[in-house]
Automatic annotation (TrEMBL):
Family the entry assigns: Belongs to the beta-microseminoprotein family.
Subcellular location, record wording: Secreted
The keyword ATP-binding belongs to this UniProt entry's keyword annotation: no
Entry protein name: Beta-microseminoprotein
Superkingdom of the organism of origin: Eukaryota
Gene3D superfamilies: 2.20.25.590, Complement Module, domain 1
First and last residue of the signal peptide: 1-20
Keyword Signal: yes
Length: 114
């Protein structure tokens, strides 16, 4: 059993390194204590089997293993960084790319990273 848990921990670490857009906060396993909530990194507790969106636009969920969160924001990656800049809108959880000298004009973006 310990070998299986160790293997899963190594796999979870490898997946996190390969895909930094998602992460897991494991639950503290206390023998005899049935999980009914999860505590996030800000100290906020969430009911078991709940889902929520964070201020930084991550979708998170709480289950018996802990908290899983994934980024939901597409980040502009292929645009003219000399002429243009990306601006993040916290309300819509989205970026727009505009000209530095004239923010009313949008710039073309050829690639996005999720």
């Amino acid at each position: 059993m310990n070998a299986l848990l160790g293997s899963l921990l190594v796999l979870a670490t490898f997946v996190t390194v390969c895909n930094a857009q998602c992460f897991v906060i494991p639950r503290e396993n206390i023998p005899g204590n049935l999980p009914n909530e999860c505590k996030d990194l800000d100290g906020v507790t969430h009911p078991m089997n709940s889902k929520w969106k964070t201020k930084s636009c991550q979708e998170c969920s709480c289950d018996q293993h802990g908290i899983s969160c994934c980024n939901t924001v597409a980040i502009p990656a292929d645009y003219d960084t000399t002429k243009c800049e990306k601006i993040f809108n916290e309300k819509t959880c989205s970026y727009k790319v505009v000209e530095r000298n004239d923010p009313e004009k949008t710039c073309p973006v050829s690639g996005w990273i999720m």
